[in-house]
């Protein structure tokens, strides 16, 4: 009977540098929702909302009804705090045009942009 089970890891990071990995052994016909319920993460973390939660397997988004396979890594994504475009613009303003971009290192005596 134990040979019929699949190994799945549920991963959640509530904040930077804090990763919670929960290895599970589940039935082969298990879905993403069933894995979340089995992990107990929804009870431990009441701030997780199934309706708004973003999920993925190995970096690819999936639905709650998606069937799991052996060695799947179920990831729970948290929302972005800052829009990446805004963060890049702010970084560019702080660094300045001379120290950022593709042509920051140039050979001595070279033309601009080379």
Characterization of this structure:
By secondary structure, the chain is of the alpha+beta class. It has a domain at 2-77: Roll (Ubiquitin-like (UB roll)), CATH 3.10.20. Helix content is 21%, strand content 27%. The protein contains three helices and five strands. Strand 1 and strand 2 form a beta hairpin. The radius of gyration is 22 Å and the shape is elongated. The protein starts with 5 loop residues before the first strand and ends in a 19-residue tail after the last helix. The model has no long low-confidence stretch (mean pLDDT 86).
List the helices and strands and how they pair.
Elements: E1 6-15, E2 18-26, H1 32-39, H2 41-44, E3 54-57, E4 60-61, E5 72-77, H3 84-95
Parallel strand pairs: 1-5
Antiparallel strand pairs: 1-2, 3-4, 3-5
Task: List its traits.
114 residues; alpha+beta; Ubiquitin-like (UB roll); elongated
Structure, briefly:
With 114 residues, this protein is α+β, with helices and mostly antiparallel strands. Helices cover 21% and strands 27% of the residues. It has a domain at 2-77: Roll (Ubiquitin-like (UB roll)).
């Amino acid at each position: 009977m134990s040979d019929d089970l699949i190994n799945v890891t549920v991963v959640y990071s509530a904040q930077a540098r804090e990763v919670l990995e929960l290895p599970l052994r589940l039935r082969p016909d298990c879905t993403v929702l069933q894995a979340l319920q089995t992990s107990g993460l929804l009870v431990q973390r009441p701030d997780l909302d199934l309706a708004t939660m973003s999920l993925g397997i190995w970096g690819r988004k999936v639905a709650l009804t998606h069937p799991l396979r052996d060695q799947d890594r179920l990831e729970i994504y948290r929302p972005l705090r800052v829009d990446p475009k805004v963060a890049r613009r702010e970084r560019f303003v702080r660094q300045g045009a001379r120290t950022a971009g593709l042509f920051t290192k140039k050979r001595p005596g070279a033309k601009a942009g080379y």
